[in-house]
Design brief:
- By secondary structure, the chain is mainly α.
- Helices cover 66% and strands 1% of the residues.
- The protein contains 22 helices and 2 strands.
- The chain has helices at residues 5-21, 23-31, 37-57, 68-86, 88-92, 99-110, 126-154, 173-202, 206-217, 234-247, 251-258, 263-267, 269-292, 297-312, 327-337, 352-370, 387-413, 418-429, 437-440, 451-465, 469-472, 477-481; strands at 379-380, 383-384.
- Strands 1-2 form a two-stranded antiparallel sheet.
- Helix 4 crosses helix 6 (99-110) and helix 7 (126-154) crosses helix 8.
């Protein structure tokens, strides 16, 4: 019989932390003289009581450790249960959202997707805007720890290739996660602080600078305004570009850099590959605008760079309606959204290293055909790649595309048009945020789609954020027979 207590104990502690975090927007609304602080006070009490009860109920499990089966349950349970409590301020608060909308927003926040169902963001209480930013910020740091500690150990999607990268030890997963989390937290805080200062320098007020810094470093994309970055000015866009790129690099490299080891961040093939893709995407979009649209060089570069980097990193900020740029940019944005940033960062989607491994496999196969007697082994960062990594990456690609197709078909069956269904499935599974078309495109949001589609998209966000296999393994009979 499966023992849920170790996972329940950890989840309970995180729920308690979420309840404590609700006191921050409560204090802000109280400071503003806004009666909405009572809502956060109530939801904080509900969340704290539930979290403490779960911790106490599972407290006798702390000495038993946590096995492989429980690690899968824990990882999925965190991103399934926390959005339920994260939704309470939307459900009970000023938005008066139905639970499906509140859950969608919370799931979008904690998975750093950035898709929203709310309009009138400019007029919401500042406490709710801060809560949206906090959820994405927590989700961002959480997924870094998962990528550095949990996924390599669970051998998910080729992530085991990073087990020798400096954070892998023989210790249990929980102490390792705690130690890695502390190291990541300091770097995460530093980047967030630098980003907030830079946003202030660019012209944002203190509150908007802090909230946008949290959602930028989390590559989440929740903005405080309905039109995202459209009216925020050139300086703010350049700041956003820089920190979206910084947040897309492996945080392990930052940890090594802080310790005085500069070599890995320079030699990392992931970083070089990611930056190369970013340069190519920006160059293509800039050239297209200069040739096809009556715009100046700086404007073309800025809009291409900001929106291209935003989609590539899965942040989802928008500074222009790229849906009107023409067929080629729209197609490019869809493809770019399926790339993502580096493993071990806050970014999402398939990620650069898997494409690099796929290319290495193709090259080795071609060389074998040319020289049948030769021995050619795929390499990554000058290291030989084992068959387990290759098969894991191939399985990830297959499952990602299969899930994408199934999700798109499911969305279409709910009545959504083809453009909305396909781009919505890409947006959710790759955790990008905005889709394409007039409904969920850069100038729209997800408020008008039907409830069934919202539940499907929320499921897609969860599955995509946790690298698919972590969730899908729970639906196999063999998993529960262990």
């Amino acid at each position: 019989m499966v023992d849920f207590r170790p996972a329940g104990h950890v989840i309970g502690r995180l729920v308690v932390g979420l309840g404590v975090a609700m006191l921050l927007p409560a204090f802000l609304d109280w400071f503003d003289g806004n009666g909405h602080w009572l809502v956060f006070g109530q939801t904080a009490v509900i969340t704290l009581v539930a979290g403490i009860a779960l911790v106490l109920a599972c407290s006798n499990s702390t000495e038993t450790g946590i096995n492989l089966q429980q690690k899968f349950i824990l990882t999925t349970g965190i991103w399934l249960i926390l959005p339920v409590f994260g939704a309470l301020p939307f459900f009970m608060g000023a938005t008066e959202a139905r639970f499906v909308d509140a859950f969608f927003e919370a799931m979008s926040g904690l998975t750093t997707t950035g898709a929203t169902v709310f309009t009138g963001l400019d007029h919401l209480p500042r406490g709710l805007l801060l809560w949206r930013g906090l959820m994405q910020w927590f989700g961002g740091i959480g997924i870094i720890v998962v990528a550095l500690v949990v996924l390599p150990q669970l051998r998910v999607g080729g992530m085991q290739i990073f087990r020798t990268e400096g954070v892998d030890t023989q210790e249990d997963i929980l102490p390792r996660a705690a130690a890695t989390g502390r190291s990541v937290a300091w770097i995460y805080l530093l980047l967030t602080g630098l980003c907030a200062v830079a946003y202030q320098w660019s012209g944002l007020d203190d509150f908007d600078a802090v909230v946008h810094a949290m959602t930028t470093i989390a590559t989440g994309g929740f903005a405080n305004f309905d039109d995202s970055f459209t009216h925020l000015g050139a300086g703010t866009e350049y700041v956003g570009m820089l920190f979206m790129l910084l947040a897309s690099l492996p945080f392990l490299r930052y940890m090594q850099l802080v310790r005085g080891n500069t070599g890995p961040i320079v030699r990392d093939s992931q970083i070089r590959g990611f930056l190369l893709v970013a340069i190519v995407v920006v160059a293509m979009l800039t050239l297209w605008q200069l040739v096809m649209m009556p715009v100046g060089q700086e404007f073309a570069f800025r809009k291409a760079a900001f929106n291209g980097i935003s989609i590539l990193t899965g942040t989802g900020y928008v500074s222009d309606d790229y849906g009107r740029w023409g067929g080629f940019p729209v197609t490019l944005f869809v493809l770019v959204g399926l790339i993502g940033g580096c493993a071990g960062s806050t970014t999402c989607s398939i990620k650069i290293f898997r494409y690099q491994l796929l290319i290495a496999l193709v090259v080795s196969q071609i060389r074998r055909l040319q020289s049948p007697q030769g021995v050619f082994v795929p390499k990554y960062d000058q290291r030989k790649v084992g068959e387990d990594v290759i098969s894991s990456v191939m399985a990830f690609f297959i499952m990602f595309m299969f899930t994408l197709i199934v999700l798109a078909i499911g969305l279409g069956m709910t009545g959504l048009d083809m453009m909305t269904a396909i781009s919505g499935s890409v947006s959710a599974l790759a955790n990008i945020g905005p889709g394409l078309g007039p409904v969920i495109g850069p100038t729209g949001n997800f408020s008008s789609i039907n409830d069934t589609a919202k539940w499907l998209l929320a499921a897609g966000m969860l599955v995509g954020r946790l690298e698919l296999m972590v969730v899908f393994v729970l639906f196999t009979a063999d998993f529960w027979r262990r």
